[in-house]
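Researcher: Go.
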Amino acid sequence: MFDGLKKHRTFELPRAMRTFLFLILMCGEPTDLKLLWEEFKEDLAEDFIRAANRNSTSIDDAAKKAYRIIANMLDNETPEGRRFDY
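Model: Structure:
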């Protein structure tokens, strides 16, 4: 799980990383979601962080935007009975 995200990190494709994390959450059984988020949140939000730096807006807000996108994907695609606390 971490190795797959680390490979995506080298290509600097935050949108692909968000999709990959979504698939990990949907199909896998990650044990420490907070650690996973903390390890990769800057990579998952890299495109939003770049925009925040250009616009002099909050980097924290950029990370929250990436988080909301992943949460929205989970809300829309999670099968019945599968629940994520975020």
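Model: Residues 2-77 form one domain.
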